[in-house]
Amino acid sequence: MANGIASADLVIAISKACLLGSFGSAGLVPSHIQVAWIKFKVRYLLRPMP
Asked: Is pLDDT at 3 greater than 70 in this prediction?
């Protein structure tokens, strides 16, 4: 999907529910992709593990 059809927040929520989320970044400017990547890292990858 192009132009970030799913927000970073939606992709994070879907992945936390053990489902497959997709963030389409084609057509987005690099700064928007970088902000989304930072959100992914902070909210999902760096979360405490159970």
From this structure: no
**Which whole number is the average pLDDT over 1-24?**
81
| Nearest-angstrom CA–CA distance, 12 and 7 | 9
d(CA 50, CA 31): 32
Residue whose entry in the numeric block shows the structure tokens 């053990």: 18
In angstroms, rounded to a whole number, what is the distance separating the alpha carbons of residues 20 and 22?
Answer: 7
Alpha-carbon 9 to chain mean position: 6
- 12-31 b/e (C-beta count within 10 Å ≥ 16 → b): beeeeeeeebebebeebeee
